[in-house]
Amino acid sequence: MIETRDLTKMYGDLYALDRLTIKLEKGDVYGFIGPNGAGKTTTMRILATLLNPTWGEATICGYSIYNGAKEIRRLMGYMPDFFGVYDDMTVIEYLEFFAAAYRIKGPERRKRCEQVLELVDLGYKRDVLVTSLSRGMTQRLGLARVLLHEPQVLLLDEPASGLDPRARIEIRTLLKELQKMGKTILVSSHILPELADICNKIGIIERGKLLFDGDVQSAIRRVRRRTVLRVAVGNGQLPRAAELLEGDERVEGVEHAEDGTLLVTLREGCDDGSFIADLLVTNQIRLRMLKEEEIDLEDVFMSITKGMTN
After folding, report:
1. What's the gap between Cα 234 and its chain centre?
2. How far is CA 246 from the centre of its chain?
3. Which of 120, 124, 188, 296 has the fewest Cβ atoms surrounding its Cβ within 10 A?
């Protein structure tokens, strides 16, 4: 559905995008992650046929960005990170205006507008002025606008930017619903745990270069090469537990955490930490907790990137 090959954009000697190659199949939700200035918005503008690359190729649903712009725009919905609304329009008027621009006519226009309002849960706001909407509602209205012509592909640039926690949850729920509908979605966001919840693939980009492209679990395996477990024991037994664990050949290191637990790092090649329970219980140490420490998308991002921007 979306494919780029060596996609490059230069401004003078600056590489805003450096030989980007990605591929999204039908139904993929691809999380595009990177610091400000990494090239995420540049990529989306090129895919939306709003910006010409310096060189390289990109196709949407088989159509090239060079000679298939009209076809791409019929099949794609692009929601930028910031977009304007018309002050003197109600919500339903705003959608009908854009539906007319998409050449949706007659009763079908009103029907389509009502459908997308229902999908984004804004039906009860249909007759209020768009300027009276909150930031979260405005984002949902923007998403409703790009869904009017029933696109197969969605490009969403920071759809949860500036939203409060409830509004972010609502946007996340909406994206899951769009995924169930079979939409192919390229979404950028700085709220990384939420991307991990909805994306089956991620791409990490920095200074225009794609550093990682694959599924979330592959990214976690790349970052964590050793298993780390958190251990809690009975009162007063922490020093003895640490001593026993440090003396075991399967343990690489033991760290005292601020919450009064131990972080036990196993040696490379040792993935099964069940021996910890046997070791402690055999030595009359009361085991209160034993669980593997999880790595989230934020840990992956901090490990793979270096914090550099163009």
Report:
1. 40
2. 39
3. 124
On whether residue 51 sits in a domain, the answer given is yes
Question: What gap in Å lies between CA 96 and CA 90, rounded to an integer?
Answer: 10
Clarify whether residues 248 and 282 are in a common domain.
Answer: yes
Task: Return the number of other C-beta atoms located less than 10 Å from residue 294's C-beta.
Answer: 10
Contact 141, 96 (CB under 8 A): no
Which range of residues forms the domain containing residue 269?
226-294
The dihedral sign for the CA sequence 208, 211, 215, 217: negative
**Residue in 19, 22, 17, 18 with CA at minimum distance from that of residue 4:** 22
Distance separating alpha carbons of residues 48 and 75, to the nearest angstrom: 10
Structure tokens at 221: 């395996």
Residue listed under structure tokens 């909805």: 198
The two structure tokens encoding residue 193: 């745990």
Q: How many other C-beta atoms lie within 10 A of the C-beta of residue 112?
A: 19
Domain with residue 154: its CATH number is 3.40.50.300
Q: Which helix (H) or strand (E) holds 237?
A: none
User: CA-based diameter of the chain, in Å?
Assistant: 79
Q: Are residues 240 and 216 in the same domain?
A: no
Domain count, the chain: 2
C-alpha to C-alpha distance for 191 and 159, rounded to whole angstroms:
10
Q: What angle do CA 294, 299, 305 make, to 5 degrees?
A: 155
Cα gap 238→245, rounded to integer Å: 11
Residues 107, 179: one domain?
Answer: yes
Q: Mean pLDDT per 10-residue run, the chain (310 residues)?
A: 95 93 94 88 95 95 94 93 82 94 91 92 92 88 92 91 79 87 89 78 92 84 80 94 94 92 90 92 94 78 68
Tokens describing residue 183 = 């939409």
* pTM: predicted TM-score of the whole model, two decimal places: 0.79
